[in-house]
Design a protein that fits this description.
Blueprint lengths: L2 H14 L3 E7 L9 E6 L3 H17 L6 E3 L6 E5 L3 E6 L1 H7 L1 H5 L6 H12 L2 H4 L16 H13 L9 H7 L37 H22 L1
Helix pairs in contact: 1-2, 1-5
Length: 233
């Protein structure tokens, strides 16, 4: 299998199972044992095992060869040997400890450019023969005398609107009813209503004294007079 197609299959399989921080390095200038090294992180033992199984199944479906798999028992570091490519699936703590990027990371492969190249290589001849769409402008429409005659006929058949009548013209024509005359000051409608009597507020009101109060005041005056006489004698 072509190495570019193989690395694309591995990258797609790891992305399907949500592999984190996927990196692929070109090792052709470092060793002759394999051409590519892939390093990816899994958050748990279950995910690392699932990532390894996804890579194995994806390569097998496309006719690739699986040389061997190691580390599936613990799940902390699973290695998938594909012959020309070795995949290291590691948990973040193990990956930070061993730092395989420093060992094999001389030349990193950018998978965006690699996937575009692979898609062009696998494209069939029918895709190349497809004609490109041309964005040509529409030709201008020529106006003929017959078209102008039809337009004139349509405009003549349209119902005409009634002209608006101004307020001044309507009043002069007598269409607006005259206003009612106001009642004069000397007419029946101008009869004034009688005013209500005012009620005094805040004034003093004199009240007649009762008989008992008058008798008691007379007795008090007689006693004062008797007292004055005795004093004078």
């Amino acid at each position: 299998m072509d190495i570019k197609k193989l690395q694309t299959l591995v990258f797609d399989a790891l992305e399907d199972v949500k592999g984190q921080d996927i990196q692929i390095f070109d090792t052709t200038e470092i060793t002759s044992l394999f051409d590519r090294v892939c390093v990816v992180s899994g958050t748990s033992n279950r995910q690392t095992k699932a990532l390894a199984a996804a890579v194995r199944d994806k390569v097998k479906e496309n006719g690739g060869n699986i040389v061997g798999m190691e580390g599936e028992g613990t799940g902390e570091w699973v290695l998938v040997d594909l012959g020309d490519m070795v995949v290291h699936i590691m948990q973040p703590a193990i990956r930070a400890y061993y730092r395989l990027e420093e060992l094999w990371g001389g030349k990193e492969v950018k998978m965006g450019a690699a996937k575009r190249t692979t898609s062009k290589m696998t494209a069939g001849p029918l895709d190349e023969e497809k004609p490109k769409r041309s964005r040509s402008k529409a030709a201008p429409v020529e106006v003929t005398p017959d078209m102008m005659a039809i337009q004139t006929t349509v405009e003549d058949e349209k119902p005409k609107r009634k002209p608006r009548v101004s307020k001044v013209a309507a009043e002069l024509a007598g269409e607006k009813p005259a206003r009612k005359p106001r009642a004069s000051a000397t007419g029946d409608a101008a009869v004034k209503k009688p005013r209500a009597a005012k009620i005094p507020t805040g004034g003093r009101i004199k009240v007649a004294a009762t008989k008992t109060a008058t008798a008691s005041s007379k007795e008090a005056a007689a006693k004062k007079a008797t007292t004055r006489r005795k004093t004078a004698e």
